[in-house]
Design brief:
single chain, 351 residues, alpha+beta, Heat Shock Protein 90, 2 domains, five-stranded mixed β-sheet, 9 helices, 66% helix, rod-shaped
Length: 351
């Protein structure tokens, strides 16, 4: 099996080599010319006359092949089939008439002797048959060429796939190393500061969450909520006083949502709804499930020092665009200011 695999790749590399392909063509055309020369010499018995006839036949033969190969097929095959077939008929007709005329009126008169190459039915039949063979050869060469191109593209795709797999493997190894390092730091930190160790653990969970959602269209709702809790816990490090967080979740297991759909609303609350010097920071989250919808409600306090124009920032704008892509008009996102509170409600289909 391994030897067969190697043979195939050796064959591909050899066949796709431009220099090899040139020598293939040269040897092939020399063989065809010699066959014309041998046949003509056997019919006439004169080398010079045979060479002239063989040259004329060979020129028409090669012309049919390359005109079809380089002009007719690429220009007309996929664009206009009727014109494609008409062009083939005209090509065979014109080359046959030119060849008969040259062989009969020029070459035969040049050597001034009777021969097979005149206006006889046998001569015309010979020209028509050999020109048709040239056309068949042109078709075969074109299809072989297309097959080589397809094989080349397949080989390139296999190479890119291999490179992608290697990059993916490296991408998997790097987080693996990072998580191992975080685990080591966690155990060392736990000896001196259990709180710092807990934060390292939450950071590790957040990073693992980002890695896992890259290949998933939907994740369990409880996974999204767990990520939200970790984000809030890490954000509280920057606050002098703890942020009061209340999360009501009435969802049963088995509910799936697109990843990072609720997180921007939480980030908005953390960014614009927390005054690090205040002791009255809170975030209230309520998640409710009906037979048709999933409802996510979040409320946080507005502080007098907050720039209210910043509430419609990039995060909410990106969320709106993503919701349109996911659900078109079948969703609802509402934000409101009520006294000193900012609220956001997101309703999406359950399925």
């Amino acid at each position: 099996m391994i030897s067969l695999f190697l043979d195939v790749h050796i064959f591909k590399s050899f066949m796709f080599n431009k220099n090899s392909f040139f020598w293939y063509q040269l040897c092939g055309w020399l063989t065809i010319y010699l066959l014309f020369m041998l046949y003509t010499y056997l019919r006439i018995g004169e080398a010079g006359y045979a060479a002239a006839i063989a040259t004329c036949a060979f020129s028409c033969f090669a012309g049919i092949v390359y005109i079809y190969f380089l002009l007719i097929y690429p220009k007309l095959y996929n664009q206009n089939r009727i014109l494609f077939f008409i062009s083939i008929i005209l090509l065979l007709l014109v080359t046959s008439l030119v060849r008969i005329y040259v062989e009969t009126h020029f070459i035969s008169k040049l050597y001034s002797r009777p021969s097979f190459f005149n206006n006889s039915i046998a001569h015309v039949s010979y020209v028509v048959v050999t020109n048709f063979v040239a056309f068949v050869l042109a078709i075969l060469l074109k299809h072989v060429s297309i097959s080589f191109v397809v094989m080349k593209k397949q080989e390139e795709m296999e190479r890119k796939q291999l490179m992608t797999e290697m990059k993916l493997l490296k991408a998997q190894l790097q987080p693996h190393f990072l998580f191992n390092s975080l685990n080591n730091i966690y155990y060392e930190a736990y000896k001196e500061s259990p709180k710092a160790a807990l934060l390292i653990e939450k950071l590790s969970q957040i990073m693992r969450f980002f890695l896992e959602i890259n290949t998933k269209e939907k994740i369990p709702l409880e996974t999204e909520i767990s990520f939200i809790k970790n984000v809030i816990d890490l954000e509280q490090i920057r606050c002098h006083n703890p942020v009061h967080v209340e999360i009501n979740n009435s969802a049963e297991p088995g509910i799936y949502v697109p990843p990072m759909l609720m997180v921007p609303l939480v980030e908005n609350a953390l960014k614009h709804g927390i005054d690090k010097r205040s002791s009255n920071n809170y975030i209230f989250i309520d998640i409710r499930i009906t037979s048709q919808n999933i409802s996510f409600f979040i409320k946080n306090q507005l502080h007098s020092t907050l720039d209210k124009n910043s509430l419609s920032g990039t995060g909410l704008k990106n969320l709106k665009e993503r919701l349109v892509l996911l659900y078109s008009d079948n969703h609802k996102l509402q934000t409101a200011e009520q006294e000193n509170n900012f609220t956001a409600t997101l309703i999406i289909p359950r399925k």
